[in-house]
What we know:
CATH superfamily: Ribonuclease Inhibitor
Radius of gyration: 14 Å
Structural class: alpha/beta
Strand content: 5-15%
Oligomer: single chain
Amino acid sequence: MKLGAAGIVNIIESLIKNTSVLDLNLEGNEFGTRGAFIIGEYLRKTKTLQNLHIGNNLIDTLGIKKFAEGLRFNRTLVSLNLCRFELAYNFLKDEGAEYLSKIFRTNNSLESLNLSNFKKQNASFNLMELKHFLVN
């Protein structure tokens, strides 16, 4: 059963009150743009979440932008799994990829980033390797 946007809203509302959750896997729930907005807002507020998996959720460019804005303000997330975060699963376009790459250039808390099936990438990167890749 897929949670969809309404299910994500309920989960995130509960997580705002719960400060002990460190890992969150929302992969494959088809929550779309609205869910990405909610997660972006949560990322702005959370002081505890360390690992997030959000691949395969039908997120469009607007949703990616809002998610990236939340990620920009987050300083606790150390692992981000964007597995299957591509056009076929999340409607990622060049503009959405650019939003994310800007955040990856400035976010100093991320240590691990999984970009499996992310456009042409097919591996899990160490963030230092990715930063070098993005800068060059």
